[in-house]
Design brief:
about 25% helix, elongated, Elongation Factor Tu (Ef-tu), domain 3, 5 helices, alpha+beta
Length: about 160
């Protein structure tokens, strides 16, 4: 009669209780997922609207003293400012060879061009005073745009 009062499942559970109980993992709380999503979205929007992309070009020239110059179109020259530093690399085999920083000394229009060309004078480091007639490379910016502008239209203005 006792066997009929207690179900078999209850007897099996009583004899197997030493095995422990099944515990399911709780998972990630929804508030954590929502917070992570909001922070990720805010970071992505900050990069899109505050990030700036600069397209650069490399120009070649020959040094001709401490005030070496390059000639640029007006669309390129308007991105430069006097006092700004640009990467400058002298090519050759003597001690003046290597990478330096040149400072933009002045930006003046070329009168014969009708203000469509500008002469940019570069102030070279004093260590390059002996680098007369050496080939050089200078990197200048062509275009600065926000990243969202680049994504909307990949063609330059």
């Amino acid at each position: 009669m006792l066997d009929q009062l207690i179900r078999q499942e209850a007897l099996d559970a009583y004899t197997e209780r030493w095995l422990g109980e099944i515990s399911a993992s709780r998972g990630i709380p929804p508030i954590s997922l929502a917070l992570t999503g909001c922070i990720s979205l805010a970071g992505l929007l900050a990069i899109l609207f505050l990030g700036v992309y600069t397209r650069e070009t490399t120009l070649e020239g020959i040094t001709n003293g401490p005030q070496t110059g390059i000639v640029l179109k007006d669309t390129q020259a308007h991105l430069l400012k006097p006092g700004e530093s640009v990467p400058f690399q002298v090519q050759g085999s003597d001690r003046a060879r290597g990478r330096f920083t040149a400072e933009i000394a002045a930006i003046v229009p070329v009168p014969e061009s009708g203000n469509s060309l500008y002469r940019v004078r570069l102030r070279l480091p004093s260590s390059l005073s002996t680098a007369q007639g050496k080939a050089f490379l200078v990197r200048i910016p062509l275009e600065r745009r926000h990243i969202y502008e680049w994504m909307v239209s990949c063609s330059p203005n």
